[in-house]
Amino acid sequence: QVSLAESGGGFVQAGGSLRLSCAASGHVSGIDSMGWYRQIPGSQREQVAIMMKNGNINIANPVKGRFTISGAFADHKVYLQMDSLKSDDSAVYSCHAYWNGFPFWGRGTQVTVAS
Asked: For the range 46-53, what are the long-range contacts, defined as Cβ-Cβ under 8 Å and sequence gap of 24 or more?
C-alpha cells in the first residue's frame, strides 16, 4: 500500500497561481498513475489531471491551458501548477494514485479563489 501527502493550496485572488505537491510513500513501486481530483461540497469529485507511469498525461477540459501536471515516478512525486485561477476552481484538491489497480487518496487540500 501507499500513503499520499499533499502540500500547497490556500487562498488566492482570481488570476493568481498556486502549486500543489504530492509525495507518495510506502510500497511505491506498484504505482501506475498519480494525479489530482477536486471536489466542491455537494458535487461529485472530478478528475483534474493524471500522469501515467508510461508518460501519458490527461488534463480535464475545464483546466486545460491553465493547469500543468508534472513530476517523476522515480521520485514518487507529482505537482499541479495552477495558473489563471478562477473562482470556479475553488475546491478541495486531492492527490490520487493507482497502486496495483487499487485507488489511494490523500487527505485533500483546500484551494479558495476569490473573485
From this structure: 48/80, 48/93, 49/80, 50/96, 51/78
User: Do the strands 10-13 and 109-114 form a parallel or antiparallel pair, or are they unpaired?
Assistant: parallel
Question: 111 with 91: CB under 8 angstroms?
Answer: yes
Helix then strand count (H, E) for the chain reads 0, 11
Which residues fall within 8 angstroms of residue 55, CB to CB, at 6 or more apart? none
Closest CA relative to residue 25, chosen from 52, 4, 6: 4
Per-residue pLDDT of the chain (115 residues; tens, 9 = 90+): 899 999 999 999 999 999 999 999 998 888 999 999 999 989 999 999 999 998 899 999 999 999 999 998 888 999 999 999 999 999 999 999 999 989 999 999 999 999 9
